[in-house]
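Support reply, case 0932

Customer input (verbatim):
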Amino acid sequence: MPDHPTAALAARISFQGEPGAYSHQACRQWDPQAEALPCPTFEDTIEACRSGAADLAMLPVENSTYGRVADIHHLLPESGLHIIGETFVRVHISLLGVPGASIGDVTEAMSHAVLLGQCRGFLKAHGIRTVTGADTAGSAMLVARAGERHRAALASPLAGEIYGLERLADQIEDRQNNTTRFLVMSRAADHARRPNRAGRPDMLTSFVFRVRNIPAALYKAMGGFATNGVNMTKLESYMVDGVFTATQFYADVEGHPDDPALARALDELRYFTSALTILGVYPADPLRSG
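Our regenerated output:
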């Protein structure tokens, strides 16, 4: 059974990438019983959920090593979807080879450029040269199709399982704490208070806003969170429509909009903003603190 009350209704979850991608792993982690629907792009992933082809969409937003995922913050406000949950995936990397191969047979390894950069120590120690692929799971698929003992892929253990490759080495990443955060999106908003997987009532609220064109607007807008004791866990800015003077901010804060302290902080924020949109109210995954 799924660990999340909302996930019980998810027959299908869309994600970007090939089967076996880390986004696919996030879908399984959220609800092992749901069907994962691979999509070519983030836009396609969103549209699959928006059109009803999928019940939920799984979108990566940030990585502990490489920061935020490009384009996602632009897509979220315009998606028409709502955040109803989050999940964190540890990026464990395996060296995947064809059946019967050994590490000594491997002379080249294929993967996405970002993942190749996370295994430099292992690859150098074994004299394995790198080949850049379009993505991690796609690289595993190509290696499986080629069927050559000297070629391997760097991808998730799930990709090895799906494409019939053997795990020649596991957890070969240079940084053992590399983690990607995913947001779970739905067509319908769910602002109900609900426990997280650990049974705790910890809630998060995510929103985007634009400040009014007045001196120190951002400073004044943020003041309400400080004076009301609301913890802001994320604040990022990004350009809107390619205009240097148009900046939008994305924020995550702890709490529920019905909490008196957060309600007061949001009221103050509205006074100094020209636009404010709540993207989601959802349980904080217990993995964010661990």
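We compared this against your earlier run and they match. Two observations from our side: The two ends are 23 Å apart (CA to CA). The chain is about 25% helix and 35% strand. Please reopen the case if you see a mismatch on your end.
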